[in-house]
Specification:
The complex is a heterodimer of chains A (367) and B (313). Chain A is an alpha/beta fold and 367 residues long. Chain A has ten helices and 14 strands. In chain A, 55% of the residues are buried. With 313 residues, chain B is an all-alpha fold. The longest helix of chain B has 27 residues, at 203-229. The chains are: A alpha/beta (367), B mainly alpha (313). The interface between A and B is large, with 45 and 46 residues.
Chain lengths: 367, 313
């Protein structure tokens, strides 16, 4: 009985494995929209508002509001930066009291519990970065039903569980920047591997799917070897990257780091293996973590947006929603020093185009 | 021994009441029916598994694989329903059965091959999580029908559905452990397995059944968890075993076996949940809460050890 079920389980996983063999592991199954191989910008299709509306909202226009920010996890550079942006904006606005609190691991169950407790404690607004777009939906819907304004940033939920989402960069834009940089460094026929957080983390899964689509369209001869999961854990990311380096030897020409933890850890693994210049590391990361590697010429391109601006924009959107200034159907919103931000995909607010940090410009950033 | 049990549970009950009073002064939203029922909802999965874990630890064992079994069953539920096209009720039953099989496998390794439970379940913790990730290929299964959410998000007579399930299971567990021959065999196996064998108690069969039950109930918790969060992920239940073991040990069950009650586990669970929720509502951040729970765990065990030494001695 046990043996039969084990064999069945193994057979199942093998079947599932072959079914997905064409695409890169770690991507999701949503449709992709790769950008043009040259710099032609994509044309945005107009889409009606698809976010949700909270029930029985009290009038918060111009009033002091209490907002809680629940990122995926606390204590890492990236979310420290968004949290700084949120606090900056709150200070600038003057009529918002905000606090950042969340799990110490990127754990969906704990994140739900945190949000649930803040709903009970009676906040006016919730800012979130979801660990899972669907799993977080019930608790966010509960918040909406209690008249709480809900705005996401960094990692989206299903649209019907929040009002607006501040999108740091479009997925296909990031995917293009990453893959183009990698192709430039390792050549059109180089082989590479990916270090990601988990296969189900929404952003990373979306990027990987878009990267696969874009690579197939514009760099068809590049060879994908493997995608490994490293949570958002420093030690695990280092170990996974080291394992990839040992496993593939000279075949491995490049590593993609999909999180702000995985990229510096991968660069460290390459440095310690003495493979600087032989294995390229391209990834998403905060500049401070990457400065040592960029200065040593171990890493030449780091792709990201400014997370401080992301948090700043999210807070301004929250205030605009609470004031009733940002309503369904709006095409733009004013976000303090960032100026007018465009509404895309119905209920998302786009922060801007991704940014590539290089040796020349990285010194000018401090986050 | 019975005097000790009364003592430890009395200490816990006093602590719980104290915590409830202090916390309700910290936030006026803590001691409300709404909040308490909601906490019951959040606590149900850990609570269910803690019931089985009480048996496991009383029998001088440990089951570290419960979180992984939860993840595996969650994934299997999705695979059975979506990929194999089985009706959802059947997929739910098969999922729970698969959890039972995973538990049975633990039991077989422990009783047949004499592998210490710590090592056996540490191995299956990795094995089951690996299977979950392999089978799912990291794809989430979503889009369950509305009726399925009754289990995890719905209410029956104003009380969350899973709280009813938990109460029924707790009552059954309390009766089995406290009043049945099976319960006495569990205590005997945990207190002194050799003596129990010579007394004609079927120790191996008892332990096999306990681990199977632990797997089954982890499977049940998985179905409730999927219903509560409306999706399956292969990383579900990661680290859950630590919450479960903390609650059981806080409840006065001896990690060396032979001692412990369901009432103690229930008190331990409630104290932990009350602290997590109450401190959050009082404005303490998440990292502070973990520290407080750690301190309370150490304090409770030291106090109850001191009291025991006095009564024993």
């Amino acid at each position: 009985m046990i043996r039969t079920s084990l064999i069945a389980a193994v057979a199942l996983s093998v079947m599932a494995g072959t079914a997905w063999a064409q695409t890169w592991t770690g991507g999701d199954d949503l449709p992709t929209s790769p950008l043009a191989c040259d710099a032609t910008p994509a044309t945005a299709a107009a889409k009606p508002y698809d976010g949700a509306e909270p029930a029985n909202v009290p009038d918060r226009k111009g009033k002091e509001i209490t907002v809680v920010d629940v990122p995926k996890l606390i204590g890492i550079g990236y979310f420290n930066a968004t949290s700084k942006g949120i606090a900056d904006a709150a200070k600038e606005l003057g009529n918002v009291s905000v606090k950042t609190d969340g799990p110490t691991k990127a754990n969906i169950d704990e994140q739900i519990t945190f949000i649930d407790n803040y709903i009970t404690s009676g906040v006016d607004g919730i800012l979130f970065a979801a660990n899972d777009p669907v799993a977080i939906a019930p608790v966010l819907k509960k918040a909406l039903s209690k008249g709480i304004n809900v705005v996401g940033y960094d990692a989206n939920s299903t649209p019907d569980a929040r009002q607006w989402f501040v999108n740091q960069a479009e997925f296909n834009g990031i995917a293009k920047a990453l893959v183009d940089n990698m192709a430039k460094e390792i050549g059109e026929d180089g082989a590479f591997a990916i270090v990601t957080s988990t296969f189900t983390t929404p952003n990373q899964a979306r990027w990987i799917a878009e990267m696969a689509a874009y690579a197939e369209k514009c760099h068809p001869n590049m060879k994908w070897l493997e995608t490994v999961e490293a949570q958002e854990d420093n030690v695990l990311s280092f170990n996974q990257a080291s394992t990839l380096i040992n496993k593939y030897g000279d075949e491995l020409k490049g590593l993609f780091g999909m999180t702000s933890v995985a990229t510096p850890a991968s660069a460290e693994a390459v440095t310690q293996a003495g493979k600087c210049g032989e294995i390229a590391v391209v990834g998403l990361a905060t500049p401070n973590a990457m400065k040592p590697y960029v200065e040593k010429d171990c890493v030449t391109s780091v792709v990201l947006w400014n997370p401080v601006d992301l948090g700043y924009a999210a807070m301004h959107v929250m205030r605009a929603v609470a004031d009733g200034a940002l309503k369904p159907g709006a095409t733009s919103v004013t976000a303090g020093k960032l100026g007018e931000l465009q509404v895309i995909n119905g209920s998302e607010i786009l922060l801007g185009a991704p940014f590539t940090f290089t040796k020349e410009n990285i010194g000018g950033f401090d986050f | 021994m019975s005097r000790y049990l009364v003592r430890h549970e009395t200490i816990l009950a006093v602590l719980l009441v104290l915590a409830l009073i202090v916390l309700s002064f910290q936030s006026d939203r803590f001691f409300t029916v709404d909040n308490l029922l909601n906490q019951g909802r959040l606590m149900a999965e850990v609570g269910l598994i803690a019931l089985a874990m009480t048996f496991v630890i009383v029998s001088a064992g440990i089951d570290l694989s419960v979180g992984s079994i939860l993840g595996l069953v969650a994934i299997l539920l999705g695979v059975f329903w979506q990929n194999l096209g089985l009706p959802l009720p059947l997929a739910m039953v098969l999922g729970v059965v698969a959890g039972g099989l995973a538990g049975l496998f633990n039991g077989i390794i422990i009783t047949r091959f004499r592998v210490p439970p710590l090592i056996a379940t540490l191995a299956t913790l990795a094995l089951y999580r690996g299977l979950a990730e392999g089978i799912s290929q990291a794809r989430s299964v979503r889009g369950y029908p509305e009726w399925f959410f009754v289990l995890g998000q719905g209410e029956v007579l104003g009380v969350p559905t899973q709280v009813w399930i938990f109460l029924v299971c707790a009552a059954v567990a309390a009766v089995v452990l406290g009043l049945s021959t099976f319960g006495r065999a569990t205590y005997a196996a945990g207190a002194n397995a050799v003596a129990a064998r010579f007394s004609g108690i079927p120790v191996d069969r008892t332990i096999l059944l306990i681990y199977t039950a632990s797997g089954l109930i982890s499977g049940l918790a998985a179905v409730i968890f999927v219903s509560r969060v409306s999706t399956t992920r292969s990383d579900m239940g990661t680290g859950l075993e630590l919450d479960v073991i903390t609650a059981v040990v806080l409840g006065g069950t001896s990690i060396f076996g032979g001692r412990g009650t369901i009432i103690g586990t229930l008190l331990g669970l409630m104290l932990m949940q009350a602290l997590k929720n109450g401190l959050a509502l009082a404005g303490v951040k998440g990292d502070g809460t973990i520290v407080v729970i750690g301190l309370i765990l150490i304090a409770t065990i030291i106090i109850s050890n001191l009291v025991r030494r006095e009564t024993d001695g």
